[in-house]
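Incident log, support desk, overnight shift.

02:14 A customer reports that sequence design results differ from what the structure should imply. Their input is reproduced verbatim below. On-call engineer (initials T.W.) acknowledged and began investigating.
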């Protein structure tokens, strides 16, 4: 009942609105492909639907996008922008959509661009993996207590970097920078 009320509100809010369609594919906890479609309008962004697809390519996502736009009765001339990552099948999807939506333009998702630029964190794996492994697989705390030559009153374990949380990588790198003398002595 509540779902239907919210769906009706969304249908009403979309009447005569210029919208931007954002399509993003991810995986759920079971490893299945989950495709999300968002509509942006009136400075709001709403998740309008999610679907698990057995095959993710430009054709299956095209069908999903078109059925979603039809479900919400969006006139084709009101669909102005398409945002996605820069995967080849998403770019191909734009080529399929363009003839239907004459005023449509494409933009790569800014978060995905940042992720590509920030991909340099992958090169940090050569440094971070052995460091994290030695810190957490050995008894670092015991080694700290037993090594009196380090002259360090408190040494903390490094903050764990999380792939999708950029600040955690910065915190990790800053931790390394702050503890370089300790790390050299420790290793």
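02:41 Re-run completed on a clean worker. Output:
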């Amino acid at each position: 009942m509540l779902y239907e009320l919210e769906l009706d509100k969304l249908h009403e809010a979309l009447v005569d609105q210029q919208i931007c369609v954002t399509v993003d594919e991810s995986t759920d906890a079971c490893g299945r492909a989950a495709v999300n479609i968002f509509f942006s309008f009136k400075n709001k962004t709403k998740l309008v639907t999610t679907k698990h697809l057995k095959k993710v390519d430009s054709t299956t996502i095209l069908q999903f996008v078109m059925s979603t736009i039809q479900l919400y009765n969006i006139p084709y001339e009101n669909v102005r922008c398409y945002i996605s990552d820069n995967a080849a099948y998403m770019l191909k999807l734009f080529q399929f959509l363009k003839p239907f939506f004459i005023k449509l333009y494409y933009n790569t998702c800014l978060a995905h661009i940042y992720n590509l630029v920030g991909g340099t964190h992958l090169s940090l794996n050569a440094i971070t993996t052995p460091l994290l492994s030695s810190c957490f697989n050995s008894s670092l705390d015991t080694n700290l207590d037993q090594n009196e030559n380090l002259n360090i009153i408190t040494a903390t374990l490094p903050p764990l970097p999380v792939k999708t949380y950029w600040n955690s990588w910065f915190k990790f790198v800053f931790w390394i920078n702050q503890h370089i003398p300790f790390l050299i002595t420790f290793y």
